[in-house]
Each structure stands twice: as structure tokens, then as C-alpha cells.
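Hi Q.,

Before the meeting this afternoon, I wanted you to have the fe (iii) ion prediction in hand. No need to reply - just skim if you have a minute. The sequence and ligand are here:
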Amino acid sequence: MTVKIFDKPEIQDFLKTLSGLDKEGGSPRVKEIVHRLMSDLFKAIDDLDITPDEYWTGIAWLNEIGAAGQAGLISPGLGLDHFIDERLDAIDEAIGIKNGTPRTIEGPLYVAGAPVSTGFARLDDGTDANGHTLIMHGTVYDSDGSPLPGALVEVWHCDTRGFYSHFDPTGQQAPFNMRRTIIADDKGRYKFQSILPHGYGVPPGSPTERLLSALGRHGQRPAHIHFFISADGHRKLTTQINIAGDPLLHDDFAYATRDGLVPDVTERVDEASIKANNLDGPFAEIEFDIQLTHLVDGVDNQLNEQRKRVAA
Ligand code: MBD
Ligand code: FE
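Predicted structure with the ligand bound:
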């Protein structure tokens, strides 16, 4: 039987009460957000006749997501991270900021505190036997096209099994493997040697995977490399590049692939290129320049405290 109680005055009053709107104290912003979210949830229960059994299935799932530390994993899976990027893009457009390098989502696997070097870094420790060498380089520019010496290029990616150091279920990787901070040289250039990463998949059997399966979806990402790029007087850019040719390039469970973030990968086999990079065999090369944008009225209007998490 279909009943609808959401619009009853008692229910509307109840929503205000449970959100603390009838009391002094607490945070007005938290009250406003909780009132809206609880109202939307009550309305959904009413409209969709969500049964008690369905409701408690959801609560059990939330507990599992929290226990597994996967709130930050299902978030991109449900498109929230990408939606927030679309909002930042729209805000930038409204205030006339053009992003030469598109932003895309951070994801949940950044770790602060990676080793720092100037101009060049090797990211991998050579232990991934299946790794194909990657040389990636480029210049960091400001929005006027001048190079930004001293810009910070934070980079992180996974190995050929799709595992990130600090989050490796096999425990095989050393801390900060495939994570570095490179200070751009006096011409604004950065360069690193690493290996081509594989795509990522959410943990099998996890509550994240179970929800995606119930939606008829997979939990796979195409191969990608993450970046934070920052410089004095500029907004910190959060982005990723995808490895061109990955079959999942446009089938990412986290919806992070964007035009402008799929640079060409060139396979170098000639002796001169190999020698010039102090390598002993063929390698993949990616050139990718990055353009930052200036602070807005002296501040980074996108600053996000999520990024201040410290090393585990
Ligand atoms: C990743 O490597 C990632 O980048 C995102 C967005 C989600 C899960 C794993
Ligand atoms: Fe990732």
C-alpha cells in the first residue's frame, strides 16, 4: 500500500527539530546541510516506498563501507568527485578563468610526504619485473605562458598489478614507491623515470564492488598518473593523465578521463634516445606541459583540506 507522509506538518516540523533548527548553538551551516539531506532522504523513502528491510540493508552497507575505509572510493564511483569538478569548471567559467590544463579528480590514494628532488626523479624502485620504462616530462607554465621555475609537481601512480604503495594488499611495495615531488628546474621543467602503470580495480568482494555490481557496473579504472601541481601565486591544480590506448579509457568507474588529459605515448627504440636517458632498452615517452592559473583575489578559491592528509 502506498502512503505519503512527507508533506505532513508534523514531519516537516520533525525535520527541523532533528536538524537542530529550533535551537541555538551548533553550526548554522551544518544544520542547513543536514536539514536538506535528511529532507531529501525522508522524501526518497516516502516516494520510493523504501521498505525497512531495504533501509537496514543500506545501513549495514554504510557500516561496511566505513569499516573498509572505502567512503573515498565509492564517492568517485558514484560520480560525486567528477560532479564537484564540473561545478569547479562552471565556477571558473562564471568568473572568467580558463584552465589550460583541465582538472580532474584526486581519488583516495594520495599520500603526503613523498621524497622531493629538483628537475628529475625516478619514481619506481625497479622491483616491478613487468614494468615497461616510462620517461615523462614537460614544462609548468602560468596562465600567461611564462615558465614557472620552482613549481611543485607531486606525482603518484600504481604498479603493473594496479596496486599503490601504502595501499598494496600484498604488502610488497616500499613506502613512497611511485610517489615523488619534483621541483621544476630553472626553466620550469620537470622530468621523471618510472614504469607504465596498469589500470586500477576496486578490491574484489568489497562493499564498493558490491554496490557497483548491483548497478550492473564494474569498478575498473584505465591506467592513469595523478598530479598535484602548485606554485607561488597560483592555484593548486589536481589532475591526472591517462595512458593512451587503454581499453577502458572511456569506461572509467571514476569518470575522470577528460579531453586534454590523454597525451600521446611514443615508443622509443633508437639507441640515441635510449642513451640520452641513461637507459638500457626501449621505453615509452610522454611529453605533457601543464598550465596553472593565478590566485583569485590573492587566494586559492578551490583550496581543499582533503589534500592536507599526512603520510600514514
Ligand atoms: C584510484 O587509483 C583512483 O585514482 C580513484 C579515483 C579511485 C580509486 C583508485
Ligand atoms: Fe589512481
